[in-house]
Amino acid sequence: MKAAMIFDMDGTLFQTNRILEASLHDTFQLLRDEEMWEGDTPLKECREIMGVPLSVVWETLLPHHAIHVHEKVNEIFQDKLIENILSGMGALYPHTEDLLAYLAARGFPIFVASNGYPHYLDAIVKYYSLDQWISSWYSIQEIESKDKGELLRKVKENHGLTHGVVIGDRKSDFKGAEENQFLSIGCAFDFSQENELLEADIVVHDLMEIKDYLEKVK
């Protein structure tokens, strides 16, 4: 059986940066309107912690707000993200479709394991017709611990995987791959950090470099 290819979504297949700023600005403007926030939208802080569960994002960005406020803000943010996806503001990374088509044609099982919410992942997959190549997509919300390694373990067990490659851009992807005895490929894209990429087994700057790697090792 060929190694399963398990992709992260944000910052790996989908250019989240294309919709992040607008979605975050809209969300924090609503907070300003309700006099629950003063100052600029914390876009820089959000970029720095991309890759963590959204509950951690709101705990970090809104440390002095109650949990029910975090939950309300998250609902607004999710709605804005999907609205912007469906309006065509987002984009896949270059060669995403080429790589997925290549992998599928050669019999590699393809999955997504992401920190994104289920309806957010559904919106991306359906809008870009990625389900023609991706078998299943998993959200961290399915895991009580919100641990990426545990989410990858669920993918592994659900599909009886013995070999796998985790493709992502943040430390949680690489650590999760190691915990499950999978190879990790780090994507040096928008949200990646150099010190975290050091923990990946392989680093690429373009998705088609994954094809080149597979051609060399087959």
| Biggest sheet features | 6 strands, parallel
Globally, the shape reads globular
Radius of gyration: 17 Å
What's the overall average pLDDT, rounded? 94
Structural class by sheet pairing and helices: alpha/beta
CATH topology of the largest domain: Rossmann fold
CATH class descriptor name of the largest domain: Alpha Beta
Task: Work out the helicity level.
Answer: 40-55%
Order of strands across the biggest sheet? 3-2-1-4-5-6
Number of domains: 2
State the total count of DSSP E strands.
Answer: 6
Any idea what the CATH architecture of the largest domain is? Answer: 3-Layer(aba) Sandwich
Runs with pLDDT <50, length 5+? none
Distance between the termini: 13 Å
Strand content: 5-15%
Q: Please provide the ordered H/E string of secondary-structure elements.
A: EHHHHHEHEHEHEHEH
Structure notes:
The protein has 218 residues and is α/β, with parallel strands linked by helices. The chain folds into two domains: 4-15 and 92-217, Rossmann fold, CATH 3.40.50; 17-86. The chain has helices spanning 17-33, 43-48, 54-61, 67-86, 96-105, 118-127, 148-158, 171-179, 194-197, 208-217, and strands at 4-7, 110-114, 136-139, 164-168, 183-187, 202-204. The chain has a six-stranded parallel beta sheet with strand order 3-2-1-4-5-6, with helices on both faces. The longest helix is centred in the middle third of the chain and has 20 residues, at 67-86. The protein is globular, with a radius of gyration of 17 Å. The relative contact order is 0.17. The model has no long low-confidence stretch (mean pLDDT 94).
